[in-house]
Amino acid sequence: MTVSDVRLRSQAAASGRRRPRALGRRIQRPGVYFALPAIVLFAIFFAYPLVSSLWQSLTATSAGVTRFVGLDQYVRLFADPLIGKSLFNAGILLVIQVPLMMALAVGLAYLLNQSWLRFRSGFRVLHFLPAVTTLVAYSVVFRVMLATDGGAINQMIGLVGIAPVDWLNNETWARVALIASITWRWTGYNMVIILAGLQAIPAELYEAARMDGAGRWTIFSKIVIPQLRPVLLFTGITSTIGALQLFDENFILTGGGPSDATLTPVLYLYKVGFRQFDFGYASAIAWLLVALTALIAFVQFRITREKS
Amino acid sequence: MTDTVAARPASTPLSPQPGRPSALSTDDAPNAPWGPRLLRGIRHLPVYLVLAVGSIVSLIPFLWMIIASTHRTSELFGTPLPLLPGGELMENLARLQAETNFGRVMVNSLGLAVAYTVFSSIVSMMAGYGLAKFRFRGRGVVLGLILVTMMIPMQVLLVPLFQMMASLGWIDSYQAVILPFVASAFGIFLMRQSFLDFPDSLIESARIDGANEFRTFYRIVLPVARPQIAALVIYTFMTQWNAFIWPLLMLNTEDKYTVPVALNTMIGLSRIDYSGLMLGSLIATLPLLVLFLIFQRQFIAGLLGGAVKG
Amino acid sequence: MKLSRFLLPTATLAAVALLSGCAAGGAGAGKPAATLDSAAKVSGEITVWSWDTAAAGLKRLGAEYQKSHPGTTVNVVDVGYDNAYDKLSVGLQAGSGLPDVVTIETDRAPGYISEFPNGFADLTPVLGDKKADFDPSKWSAGSNADGKLMVAPWDSGTVALFYRSDYLADAGVDPASLNTWDDLVAAGEKIKKATGHTLMSIDVSSGFTFAMMLQQQGQGLFDSDGKIAITSPESVKALTLLKEMNDKGLIKNVKGWDGRVTATKDGDSAVHPEAVWWIGTLTSEMPELAGKFGVVPLPAFTEGGARTSNNGGSNLAIPAQAKNPDLAASFISYALADADNQVSLMKNEGLFPSYLPALKNGFFQQADPYFGGQKVYQLFAQETANIPSITVTSDNAKALDIVANAVVASVINGDDPKKTLDNAAKQIATATGRKIAD
User: Fold this and answer.
1) CA–CA distance from C99 to each of B85, C93, C102, C317 (Å)?
2) pLDDT, tens only, C15-56
3) I need a labelling partner for C191 at 20 to 30 A (CA). Which of A155, C117, C150, C355 fits?
4) Which of C54, C86, C257 has the CB atom closest to B249's CB atom?
């Protein structure tokens, strides 16, 4: 029995009689039960913190006294130059780092999917390795490697005659270093997910396309990319959220500097909350970020849906 | 005959028919006069080159970690950098164990990661399936809310969540470390995207044949999604293994520490024990590597066995 | 059946209702601490959080304390330095989760004291009578606005000038002649000409050297009224000095702790203004440089001015939520206000006492071969009592970030120091709502 046979049979069955509404709903209801554990867990462990952080964003604390201040903390967001700066930095990541990493991940996955390739496992493991290091270790290693004097990176580029770069003390280079370290860490990881998506593409589709005489590029754009759409959307959105919420890497690598060149919104809200103890303002920053992220994710959803 | 790994292991002879380039490979000139084999080999070279460069770039920091693990910290700075492994491995290992009880710490992390992976994967698979294949009332809302939780920076939830754990008396307990995050928005989202393209017809036909929903899920849908499930398991395990801030806040007893927390205690006030830190980090990557290797094989085998065949 | 519809809202309400009790209890308030009684009988158990060598020292003293005080147990946990403050901040904010004794550094303590006025126990009943025995700058940094001691002074970060005796000898500079910063700059130029070495390797972007120079002149980022003080003549003097040094090529800008260690190991610069705990780093990480260093007091800004400052050092405090505050207080007193124990912490862990009677111990009179036989500890011991006290407010972290940017702007990018400081002051005013002092 082929896939298409099954499809025909169920369509015939469906068109043969009108389905009562109740029957239709009953078929959909199990969805709730499947999703129930997740819903309950979220309700218990996220509802309270969410509500609490929302409440906190409407308060201000100083010298141990917390007062309700309405939307003051949100108004403060607009006057705070560091908000603009951190959003700008996050924007740079979004516009440069995410597409760069996605292109690399897709390209590498595509290469790894070649049938004639040997050592596929080995390559896959090697590229996945960076994602597997503990954050503390890799940030410390990068910080040491990027040291202006005697750091491994400067020593290596010195071999080809380039003057040492003041990576962590120069605003532009610090951003480059940050983008490089994030890309280094996560490209292989995204590649594995995309590769899984590639490998799940049914063989018949290639067969059919080749029988129709399609060339390499046509197959790639008309079959592979559309089939990969769910996976690409997933990695795209998670990378976007990762870029907007960047904290770990710049926290240890640069501390947000130099001169806030690598300050991201979450790092800023961490400083506000945990160094300056202004949890109300930190919560306001967080919710601003949620709004922005939701907006961008929504746009991404719509764009990818319209393409089909 | 196909060219993707999905359908056949790489070892079967797969030479393309003469005159017909394979759909997805870069083989393009089987008709060259001096033999398809040699030219194919030359065409393959750039690909291997690219992958080799990628591998080297991925490896370089690890090289430094290996060097650091086998030297004394004081030997690591100052020019020129030591380029070959030194002989301090045993001393560093002994010190690592003495200062952080690293063996115990690895066991803690392993237990927590396995438990978390089991629970979280089950929850994610079920929820992803429910949200992908069923159109129940409120589905959009649930999906939206789950996505919103993914967008909230964790840092801002720390204090309220901490308060909740404190009032439950769960501070310094393992359940506090994993329970709040068992429902993972990323995992659910990944599973949902994976199940979206699963042919509805197969589910329909299973229903018509009388299977209940859960059976359908377990027997028909899951086996096909093995690559994605493997990715989910790897992701979930990795997330818990490398989890840092939350276990740090929750665990107050040194014997209960997980690997990242224990390693972080080596970052001292005025000095960092680089050699110990790097050695511990290297050891810490091993379980993740093993997991990755296992699941690579697994999902290929799964595909050969139960893939949708035409 | 509309089960799904009600599910989410019901679960949410249940969760919120169930836990709303702790919502009221959180957010930084919390009950005030019990009043300590120095004469109380001590028993039971306490947990102490610390890090690194400090934790090792407390473990050792804890064992001895248990021997001399039967019926007590002292658990010392090494929580690691790097994120000990996250645990502390969250614990103070949530009102629970903290142990009986915590370690807090001197520059962080004022922030916690002012943000959590009810967060710690008042230590005056237990240590108040010993005020004159402690480094005055640490006592004042550890007290709240009412003069009550909230955190107990532990080790000191007395600052002096470490120098490479070989570089100075090669350039014909006499270390005893470095009495003012102007003397030092002139010497720096001589050294550069003669040996090619820079004068100092510092991390300009951290702002620490600037803050240290301010404290040396008796000033902090804020004045005693809590107003922003960085537009003062002293501030301009300090920043101009740094800028001048960089313009003359006397400063090597390095990044972070590793940068400073590497620079010292490589022998890049001739001097290094740093705290007493730097000795530990030198002896353990650069044993090959033994015999090449010496120490003199910091050059003064004006003749007769202070020749030291503070950088670092820790304190011990008792959170208000401690379960056994009296035992905690007794242990703190045992560890910090006892000359013999302070000397043992110095001998074994390299923690320089701020408890002045301890500094009279013969240990501090020894000649140190690493420094060519100089009695370095004696120098630091003498200077500890001279550290100028300054005002540290809850906005110090915020202000230091802004000031650090200003330091970079002026020293590295060449902006005019007075203008940069005025701008920075305005930024701090906007960010904190405080006024600028005139």
Assistant:
1) 42, 14, 7, 10
2) 444 444 444 334 444 567 778 887 788 889 999 999 888 898
3) A155
4) C86
- Give CA–CA dist A123/A121, Å, rounded: 6
Which of C16, C205, C268 is nearest residue A257 as measured by Cβ atoms?
C205
Q: Taking CB atoms and an 8 Å limit, are B25 and A2 in contact across chains?
A: no
Give pLDDT tens digits for C174-212: 999 999 999 999 999 999 999 999 999 998 888 889 999
Per cent of chain C over pLDDT 90 is: 53
Domain boundaries, chain A: 15-56, 75-307
Query: Considering only alpha carbons, which residue of chain B is nearest residue A193?
Result: B231
Those residues whose C-beta lies under 8 Å from the C-beta of residue C363, and which sit 6 or more positions away, are C343, C346, C347, C377
Q: Are A56 and C27 in contact (CB under 8 A)?
A: yes
- d(CA C285, CA C265) in angstroms, rounded, equals 8
The answer to whether C358 touches C154, Cβ cutoff 8 Å, is no
Distance CA A136, CA A253 (A): 10
Determine contact, residues B271/A142, Cβ cutoff 8 Å.
no
* Tens of pLDDT, residues C347-362: 888 889 999 999 999 9
Residues B153 and B132 occupy one common structural domain: yes
Tally of structural domains, chain B: 2
Tell the CATH superfamily of the C44-157+312-360 domain.
Answer: Periplasmic binding protein-like II (3.40.190.10)
Interface of C with A in 53-112 (CB under 8 A): 85-86, 89-90, 93, 111
- List chains adjacent to chain B, taking adjacency as at least 3 C-beta pairs closer than 8 Å: A, C
Q: Which residues in chain B touch residue A247, judged by CB atoms under 8 angstroms apart?
A: 153, 155
Number of inter-chain CB pairs under 8 A, A vs C: 115
The dihedral region occupied by A118, where left means phi > 0, alpha psi between -120 and 50, and beta the remainder, is: beta
**DSSP 8-state secondary structure symbol assigned to residue C353:** B
d(CA B18, CA B29): 10
Q: Could you tell me which of C290, B273, B53, C29 has the C-alpha nearest to residue A108?
A: B53
pLDDT mean values, one per 10 residues, chain B (310 residues): 29 29 40 61 85 91 87 71 79 87 94 95 92 84 83 83 88 92 90 82 82 80 81 88 90 90 78 84 88 73 44
| Residue whose tokens read 């029988």 | A211
B170 reaches C (C-beta below 8 A): no
pLDDT per position as a tens digit, C371-403: 989 999 999 998 988 899 888 887 887 788 889
Domain A75-307 has CATH 1.10.3720.10: yes
* CATH T-level assignment (fold) for domain C159-309+391-432: D-Maltodextrin-Binding Protein; domain 2 (3.40.190)
What would the pLDDT profile of A53-96 be if each residue is shown by its tens digit?
A: 888 899 887 777 788 888 888 998 988 888 999 999 999 999 99
Q: Do C89 and A260 touch (CB under 8 A)?
A: no
Same domain, B50 and B196: no
